[in-house]
Specification:
Layout lengths: L1 H36 L1 H8 L27 H4 L20 H4 L13 E15 L2 E15 L4 E14 L2 E17 L4 E14 L9 E14 L5 E14 L2 E15 L1
Antiparallel strand pairs: 1-2, 1-8, 2-3, 3-4, 4-5, 5-6, 6-7, 7-8
Helix pairs in contact: 1-2
């Protein structure tokens, strides 16, 4: 009985070995056919899952759920010691236009010249003697040199036309003296002067002398013309003389043009 059981066991084990070999022989072609039809299945069969170190040149495994693997370069990890830490905003891509860069509300600068030459119209109401007066018209011109920005020397000559008993004549004055000025806004220049000199009156009158000491004191304003060397002048003086044993105090007004150099 024991021998029968042993014989049956050997027979069963032999039959199992033969079946396994047949199944293995049949499975290899099936796996080869599946690998040819599906490349992914071929990569699955050839991937060394249990290798201790990855093969050189092996591709990086894809990140799960479709996310690309994050890579850090050495430059991103190591900070640049020379990198600027300024918080200033980045420069604009387009340069600023000249209109935007130009300052606003800026006024021009007016130059104070040392020399000034003037020529204009003059009116003098000449009080000849008490109760006798004449309205005279003519011209005057002057030249000024400023030693300082506010102080200079003024020289002037004035001539106005007179009439005595139907005879025409002239009231003349020439003199010089100090002059002061103050430069205001927008090219406005205010000034004052005192002149001392010589006066001559024609024609000959029954009252006496034709020559006398004279002086005048007054001032005016120069208005600059469009940032040029030219200006308009308006002014008034008190013209004083000593004719015929009496004093004359005659108002004088004038207007003209100034050239600065």
């Amino acid at each position: 009985m024991r021998h029968v059981v042993v014989i049956l066991g050997l027979a069963l084990s032999r039959a199992s070995a033969v079946g396994a070999q047949e199944n293995l022989a049949q499975g290899i072609p099936a796996q080869e056919n599946a690998a040819q039809e599906n490349p992914a299945y071929a990569r699955l069969l050839t991937t060394p899952y249990f290798s201790l170190s990855p093969a050189s040149g092996a591709a990086t495994a894809a990140a799960p759920l479709g996310f690309a693997p994050a890579t850090l370069s050495p430059a991103a990890i190591t900070p640049d010691p020379f990198a600027s830490t300024s918080l200033a905003p980045a420069p604009s891509a387009s340069p600023a236009s000249p209109a935007a860069a130009s300052p606003q509300g800026v006024q021009g600068v007016f130059v104070n010249y040392n020399w000034q030459a003037y020529l204009g119209y003059t009116f003098v109401r000449f009080y000849e003697v008490p109760g006798v007066q004449q309205d005279t018209n003519g011209f005057n011109y002057s030249i000024v040199y400023y030693f300082l920005s506010w102080f200079g020397v003024d020289g002037e000559f004035a001539a106005t036309r007179t009439s005595q008993s139907g005879i025409n004549g002239w009231l003349l004055f020439g003199g010089g003296g100090p002059r002061f000025r103050w430069s205001g806004p927008r090219g406005l220049e205010l000034w004052g002067h005192v002149l001392f000199g010589y006066s001559h009156f024609t024609p000959q009158t029954p009252y006496g002398d034709q020559e006398a000491f004279g002086y005048e004191a007054g001032g005016g304003a120069d208005i600059n013309l469009r940032h040029t060397r030219w200006a308009l002048r308006l002014g008034a003086d008190m013209f004083a003389t000593h004719y015929f044993g009496t004093y004359q105090y005659s108002p004088k007004a004038f207007a003209g043009v100034v050239y600065k150099f």
